[in-house]
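testing teh design pipeline on a random one, pls ignore if ur not involved
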């Protein structure tokens, strides 16, 4: 175990590369830096998780940045996925607490919410194409709808 830890420390000290966006940051990204392909990415991701990626983030070591923020697009996607049935119901009528929360997460101010709610109601069949629509598809379709409106285009979720 001591040898493995020593290799990890040496690899991270000699590596000036940034964390891989697929595997994240941590010991694994440092050990497997420079390798390509599915296997090294999977091993880097596993090693990151196994060797306390949260500690690396907190300490700002092994390619992790401890002063970053969680991407709003990630929060919006997670929220949409967790609340997709409620959002479908509320978008179909253009109002509701969950839809209001989505608008808040997207940064829609109070004065633009009525237009946002109306747009989701008017374009419900576009946003929810069928009953198997995923959160990513919902957000993509909603972005297309919002982009067509001069006011609402400012709230398009950037990936």
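output:
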């Amino acid at each position: 175990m001591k040898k493995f830890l020593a290799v990890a420390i040496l690899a991270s000290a000699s590596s000036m590369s940034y964390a891989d966006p697929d595997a994240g940051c941590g010991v694994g990204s440092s050990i497997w830096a420079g390798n390509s392909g599915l296997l090294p990415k999977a091993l880097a991701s596993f090693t990151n998780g196994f060797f306390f990626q949260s500690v690396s983030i907190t300490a700002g070591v092994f390619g992790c940045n401890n002063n970053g923020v969680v991407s709003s697009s990630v929060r919006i996607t997670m929220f949409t996925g967790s609340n997709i049935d409620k959002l479908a119901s509320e978008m179909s009528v253009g109002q509701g607490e969950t839809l209001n929360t989505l608008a808040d997460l997207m940064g829609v101010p109070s004065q633009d919410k009525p237009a946002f709610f109306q747009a989701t109601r008017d374009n419900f069949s576009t946003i929810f194409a069928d009953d198997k629509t995923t959160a990513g598809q919902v957000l993509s379709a909603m972005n297309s709808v919002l982009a067509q409106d001069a006011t609402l285009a400012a709230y398009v979720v950037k990936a």
